[in-house]
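step=encode ok
step=design start
structure_in=
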């Protein structure tokens, strides 16, 4: 990935100005057909840049997918005491930051650092008009949401009320933290998954109430480093 990003950085530099300088220097060799030469060079460089950066984004998707495993939901010793008729009275604030959230968010932070080292945080991808850093983080964020929602959908049928309620709060925390980078499609996927979790918990969208908000605020405290890095 580092080598790919170095190649992308060289291509970006060329596309953002150095091609024109080269063409001017060799204009006498092209019978002043500068525009044709510049266009041909730009097409070749954009093809290389596209191949290298698209491969990098695909690696992000593949690597992030391995960080989205929920593992054992656990901590449900007193699940039998859970009152599904009054779930708003049963919300328990987390005491530790969930490991799957930590792994997923750390993967996004590492992705941002990797792109920033190679391309900086302001270099624009010519073909899309946004920064390389944003594109990489958006890809990673979408992949995290897609992976976690897929895991939740696969395990939802086996969840009990308190588990579903806890996962709904954790998913809302994730949405809040990554909202600047998520596509509309993934926001819709996450919102639909959260609603299904809340329904499974037996109390509608109780995560919007004071107890649910308290649980999300505690997650924000426990995962403060990620909130500061990604919630800008």
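sequence_out=
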């Amino acid at each position: 990935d580092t080598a790919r990003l170095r190649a992308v950085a060289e291509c970006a530099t060329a596309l953002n100005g150095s091609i024109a300088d080269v063409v001017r220097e060799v204009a006498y060799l092209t019978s002043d057909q500068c525009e044709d030469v510049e266009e041909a060079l730009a097409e070749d460089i954009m093809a290389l840049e596209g191949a290298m950066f698209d491969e990098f984004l695909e690696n992000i998707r593949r690597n992030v997918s391995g960080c989205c495993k929920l593992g054992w939901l656990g901590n449900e010793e007193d699940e039998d005491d859970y009152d599904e008729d009054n779930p708003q009275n049963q919300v328990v604030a987390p005491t530790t930051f969930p490991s799957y959230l930590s792994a997923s968010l750390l993967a996004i932070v590492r992705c941002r650092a990797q792109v920033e080292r190679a391309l900086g945080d302001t270099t624009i991808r010519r073909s899309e008009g946004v920064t390389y850093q944003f594109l990489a983080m958006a890809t990673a964020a979408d992949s995290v949401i897609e992976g976690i929602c897929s895991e939740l959908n696969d395990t939802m049928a086996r969840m009990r009320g308190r588990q579903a309620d806890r996962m709904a709060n954790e998913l809302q925390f994730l949405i809040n933290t990554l909202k600047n980078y998520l596509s509309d499609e993934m926001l819709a996927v996450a919102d639909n998954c959260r609603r299904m979790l809340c329904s499974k918990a037996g109390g509608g969208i109780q995560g919007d109430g004071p107890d649910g908000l308290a649980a999300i605020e505690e997650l924000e405290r426990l995962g403060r480093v990620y909130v500061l890095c990604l919630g800008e």
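step=design ok
step=annotate ok -> The chain has one domain: 2-230.
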